[in-house]
Amino acid sequence: MGSLSYGQGMNLRQLRYVVATADHGTMTSAAQALYVAQPALSRAVRELERELGVELFARSGRGVVLTPIGEQVVREARIALDAVEAIEALSVSRANGRGADLRIAVTPSLEPELTGRLIPRFARDQPAVRVRVVRCDDRDQVAGALRAGRADLALADLPVPGDMSAHPFEQREVVLISPPALQIREPVPPAALDGMRLVLPARGSARRAEIDAILRRIGAAPVAAVESDERASWLGWVRAGMGSLLWYRNQIEDTEGVTVRSFMPPLTRMIGLVHAHRRLSPAARDFLAFAKETAREDH
């Protein structure tokens, strides 16, 4: 959706957050459903209440319920959001896509997904759309590219900052790839990574930042057996018994000579298509619809 305004400061993002809170009963659940940070959602709702001079929600147990005026606001908000969707849908025309440019930002670990899977399939359906990949080192650069208008869409990790819209695309499983001789309980408890010898991306690289973030999340401190960005060599080092590897199940092409083990509880990473709160071009809307349909077909 775009950033059309209603009233002095009211915007579609605030309306979307208020409707989601009403639907889910708590701001935490609403933020999770929208894949935005909960403080950002709460702040937007409070700002709208301040602008309108009314209280939209009242506390009820651990959640919130709409006040009488809140019920009226949500009813009108639904009408407004539906109207915007209908208006923007009018602009989505295959003919309008002729010669269109589409810029999609992505980080190194997700680029194979974008360039090897999504873009080729989209190009078969929309050969006239010129897709340009905007390469970013990390999620902060992705958000910066979207905010500055250097990219129309991004394939990125979720959740995203509150000034972005997120469309969940795929949940990826992180697995342990290890020499078959490694004796370990299956499925693997994440705590088993503590002190384990791992083949890791080079320090300072975007891929290493991703793995380090996963390790921090589970509180594990492995031992770096190899540190290298030579991705083509990673499985070779595992086969040689130098260490195990943390990577994504859907990016493992050759499992000969290694054992792939799941974690319990599972280690997952949600990715999605992301854009700033502004009106999308027809080409961007087409790509978003295509990606959602692709995800449904592949699952």
TrEMBL record:
<dbReference type="Pfam" id="PF00126">
    <property type="entry name" value="HTH_1"/>
</dbReference>
<keyword id="KW-0804">Transcription</keyword>
<protein>
    <submittedName>
        <fullName>DNA-binding transcriptional LysR family regulator</fullName>
    </submittedName>
</protein>
<dbReference type="InterPro" id="IPR036390">
    <property type="entry name" value="WH_DNA-bd_sf"/>
</dbReference>
<feature type="domain" description="HTH lysR-type">
    <location>
        <begin position="10"/>
        <end position="67"/>
    </location>
</feature>
<dbReference type="GO" id="GO:0032993">
    <property type="term" value="C:protein-DNA complex"/>
</dbReference>
<dbReference type="InterPro" id="IPR000847">
    <property type="entry name" value="LysR_HTH_N"/>
</dbReference>
<keyword id="KW-0238">DNA-binding</keyword>
<dbReference type="GO" id="GO:0003677">
    <property type="term" value="F:DNA binding"/>
</dbReference>
<dbReference type="InterPro" id="IPR005119">
    <property type="entry name" value="LysR_subst-bd"/>
</dbReference>
<dbReference type="GO" id="GO:0003700">
    <property type="term" value="F:DNA-binding transcription factor activity"/>
</dbReference>
<dbReference type="InterPro" id="IPR036388">
    <property type="entry name" value="WH-like_DNA-bd_sf"/>
</dbReference>
<keyword id="KW-0805">Transcription regulation</keyword>
<dbReference type="Pfam" id="PF03466">
    <property type="entry name" value="LysR_substrate"/>
</dbReference>
<comment type="similarity">
    <text>Belongs to the LysR transcriptional regulatory family.</text>
</comment>
